[in-house]
Amino acid sequence: MVGKVDAAIARRPGLTCLGAIAATGFAPWGFWPATAASLVLFLRTVGEMASMRRVFAASWWFGFGIGIASLFWLAHAFSFQAAMPPWLGWVAVALLSAYTALYWALAIAVAHAAARGASQISFAVYASASFMIAEWLRGIMLTGFPWNPLGSIWLAAPDVSQGAAMIGGLGLSGLTILLCGLVAAATHGASVRPLIAAIGIVAALLAFPRKSVVADTPIPISVVQANISQSDKWRAGAADAQLTEYIALTKARPSGAPRLIFWPEAAITKPLDTDPGLRRRAAAALDSQDLLFTGAIGTIDDEGLANSVFVLDAGGTVLVRYDKAHLVPFGEYLPFASILERVGMSRLVPGDTDFIAGPGPQTFDVLNLRAGVSICYEIIFPTAVIDPANRPAFLFNPSNDAWFGFGGPQQHLAQARLRAIEEGLPIIRATPTGETAVIRSNGSIAARLPAHEAGRLDAFLPSPGDPTPYSRWGNAIPLGAGIFMIAIAGLWRARRRFPAKR
């Protein structure tokens, strides 16, 4: 019976379906046991294959299934650009899934080749290390796409996800492959040693000291969600009415203390730096000592436009400006424009002007606090969300997730939570339609607004935690651990192949 199941899984449809089941561990479902079980079956199946070519193909189909089932929301974004037919969105989902599947294929095929002739335990170790390297490469190749790291499934198991403070999401990904590979090895043979090793690793992870929740600061914050849909956001003549809505939601005060007020990405859809009247109007929502963090369009001399965050005081003076550095390809600029425009491609954001990238992570002094800003897509890049030389006390992550319907916004929030754990910093998320939330430094959600409802989230700014090991050393920890694992496995294998002569 087991042999028949393994044979069915080894076929393309079986592998793709198994990958789709594995994707249910990601938000919005968070069903990590299905991911773990799928990985055990997958690693058992490919571990028994003799041909590296078969392993590569099988791993690609598994990764393709994960991609299709977890990136489906991307198709929704194409329904807002009249220059492109909606069906092109599903082509984009398939192409992006095919691309991300390559990293699964390369990682597992390399591990299989390295472990050829060795035990299933060695295969699990090599697979863990090579998968971490592959996932790291996915985050930097071709501008990077580190969306949905495998380790993010553990946000549904908070005791495990806290390990990201030490080894990052990348390390959690490698650990997931190692644990599932060891269980697969235990099911493959009679030995219980792999299972004992897996239990020991889980016990060690659960023994990792948990960060206690630090009391919130006394600083009141208000995060505004106006529930402006993507179809309405860029509609001609709608900007004034939308600004009026943000002002109305902001004005009613929860207390008399000065507030930090947060509006979403591009809440103001006009250039704010060149229009003093527009700044004064936005500032009309503020009391004398309030400060407003708002997403808006910025200008860069004669070069073009930027996706920016401005901090305004009650007089409409710009105190701080941050320009988004990591722009979304095909969203905020069109790569290879001269070629792609000929086949009907255009940017998802309306208009024909590409945005200009800013200089990168910065820390600003605001109200005697150090604030960092990471706009939308930037939050998915580990080790690239803060200025390490000037650590902020909190991160503001304005986003416009109205593009992505169901699934994408929840996954985006999950990755912001992972960054909070890694950096030990609270994160304030402001979105027009959801997921608007206040995230503590341990990744837990302190407060959250319902999706697709207009409202304001009144809370107190969470306190920062201490710098984490991962915030200090970043991916050097998991990648170093991966290299160490490869070395140990290689030495063990060499010792068994060439035993010392007595």
Sequence-ordered SSE layout with sheet pairings:
Blueprint: H1 2-9, H2 12-22, H3 32-47, H4 52-70, H5 74-77, H6 88-114, H7 120-138, H8 158-161, H9 164-188, H10 193-206, E1 220-225, H11 230-233, H12 239-251, E2 260-262, E3 268-271, H13 276-283, E4 291-300, E5 304-312, E6 318-323, H14 337-340, E7 363-366, E8 369-373, E9 394-398, H15 408-423, E10 427-430, E11 437-439, E12 445-448, E13 455-460, H16 469-473, H17 476-497
Parallel strand pairs: 1-2, 2-4, 3-4, 8-9, 9-10
Antiparallel strand pairs: 1-13, 4-5, 5-6, 7-8, 10-11, 11-12
Order of helices and strands: HHHHHHHHHHEHHEEHEEEHEEEHEEEEHH
What is the 3D form? globular
Helix content: 40-55%
In the residues, how many domains can be counted?
A: 2
Query: Radius of gyration, Cα only, in angstroms?
Result: 24 Å
Unreliable residue runs: none
CATH class of the largest domain: Alpha Beta
Number of helices: 17
Please state the average pLDDT score. 89
- The percent range for strand residues is 5-15%
Question: Please, what is the CATH homologous superfamily of the largest domain?
Answer: Carbon-nitrogen hydrolase
Kindly identify the CATH topology of the largest domain: Nitrilase/N-carbamoyl-D-aminoacid amidohydrolase
